[in-house]
Amino acid sequence: MIGLHKPLNVSATLTMLLIAAWCALTTACSSGQVVVEPNLPVNGIDISSHNGKIDFEAVRADSIDFVIIKATEGSTFKDPAFHTNHTNALKAGLKVGAYHFFRFETNGQQQALNLIKAVRGRHLDLPIIIDIEEWGNPEPCPTPEIMGRLREMISYLESQGYPVMIYTNRDGYERFVENQLERVPLWLCSFDNPPLPSNNDRVTLWQYSHRGSVNGIEGDVDRNAFMGQRHEYIEWLNSLSFPPQYYD
Question: What's the CA gap between 34 and 186, in Å, rounded?
């Protein structure tokens, strides 16, 4: 009833609101939620067999321009959904890329061969992407040894005519990329906006959320954006060259 409410304690209320806001922001960052949605015109997703069956027509209709599909891991593993996802994504009119999860302890050339066997004869629009991160890899593993195997993989892929890109997160950028692989295009996972404040033009693709939502996919999906305007995206794609496509 009007007139029967207790007087509002402004100081206590403000403190509670600040605490709630801080908790929400902390939860968003730790869970991979988008903190600030990027205002960028070219959008994409990355997927693997863990995303289940995908309706790529619905994905394309949801303003998604490109999809990066897991192909391989280490020297032997091939993602069981790669060929199906690749075929259906192309049919839907999406630009397509393939990524490889890099194993710290495995010979670089053997990893390159595993990836090449998976993508051979399949049309690609984006560079071959090497995903290098500490999560899912054995530690301790000396950084110089990892870098030696990584450079071996990059060199072999390039010798076969494939353009190469590196994917990593902020920790991986500082450990594996910064001041070491400056010539290699970067796809960065970062929940900051912009992803690298001091060197923003270093990032070509930005993964800004692990908890995105896209029509045609059940559950969470990684969301990405191209760090530039649409005409720059088209120019970038047109600048890439690949080896002649052939089949076994």
Answer: 20
pLDDT at 8 over 90: no
Cβ pair 103, 136 in contact under 8 A: no
Q: Confirm if 63 and 223 have CB atoms less than 8 A apart.
A: no
**Residue 181 located in a structural domain:** yes
pLDDT value of residue 196: 80
Is-contact 129 102, C-beta < 8 A? Answer: no
Range of the domain at 115: 42-239
Q: How is residue 214 annotated by DSSP?
A: -
User: Under a CB-based contact definition with an 8 Å cutoff, are residues 147 and 179 in contact?
Assistant: no
Mean pLDDT, residues 102-130: 97
**One-letter identity of residue 101:** F
Tokens 């920790």, located at residue: 171
CATH number at residue 220: 3.20.20.80
Residue 247 resides in a domain: no
Its pTM stands at: 0.84
Domain count, the chain: 1
Element (H, E) at 226: strand 221-226
* pLDDT tens, residue by residue, 10-36: 344 344 433 333 343 333 333 445 456
* Phi/psi of residue 205, nearest 5 degrees: -120, 145
Residues 6+ apart with CB under 8 A from 246: 120, 121
CA distance 124 to 120: 10
